[in-house]
Q: What sequence folds into this?
């Protein structure tokens, strides 16, 4: 059995660890969806979000920011009655306002720029850490503090420094797989120039 940093006791977490966590994402829409989910995770375990992720995708129209930005009070009330998602009024409202902030950042039909903006906080390339213990993983860094501050200035909510660092780990801006984990080297190779997806 391969040695993992975490996730061994839960098949869903193990699959996420083995196939998604730390894999570099560059697409604006994918990054937006992940940022929204990380906002919903605040104060909860990632396992809760993974268990509800499929329903989140359905309920929020595939995290399509153009559709989400048009959600009205009736739609928000409907979402708050959906047991398949995290029914937190502030988080649902933040997801909608974040869609609007995203569209202000990336106007409909434009080529983007959200990804380049976010990746700029790590110099455009994944930072390769060499941590040997889960205890070495920080809750926040200078980069996540800067990302949080910049996103808040642009109207985003539920994007504190800790949420931003969890986001950076998840989307491969930092490789925080432990050096003893079988995914560390694999994720490092995915970060090589020309391997973007």
A:
């Amino acid at each position: 059995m391969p040695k993992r940093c975490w996730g061994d006791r839960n098949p869903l977490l193990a699959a996420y660890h083995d196939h998604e966590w730390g894999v570099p994402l560059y697409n604006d829409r994918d990054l937006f969806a992940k940022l929204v989910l990380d906002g919903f995770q605040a104060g909860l375990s990632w396992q809760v979000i993974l268990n509800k992720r499929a329903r989140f995708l359905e309920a929020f129209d595939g995290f399509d920011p153009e559709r989400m930005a048009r959600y009205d009070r009736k739609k928000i009330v409907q979402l708050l009655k959906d047991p398949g998602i995290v029914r937190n009024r502030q988080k649902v409202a933040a997801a909608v306002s974040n869609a609007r902030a995203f569209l202000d950042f990336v106007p409909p039909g434009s080529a983007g720029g959200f990804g380049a903006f976010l990746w700029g906080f790590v110099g455009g390339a994944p930072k390769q850490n060499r941590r040997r213990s889960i205890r070495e993983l920080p809750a926040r860094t200078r980069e996540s503090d800067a990302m949080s501050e910049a996103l808040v200035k642009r109207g985003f909510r539920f994007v504190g420094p800790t949420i931003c660092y969890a986001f950076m780990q998840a989307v491969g801006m930092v490789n925080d797989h432990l050096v003893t984990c079988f995914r560390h080297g694999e994720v490092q190779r995915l970060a090589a120039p020309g391997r973007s997806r």
In short: The beta strands are 127-128, 174-175. The first strand starts at residue 127 and ends at 128.
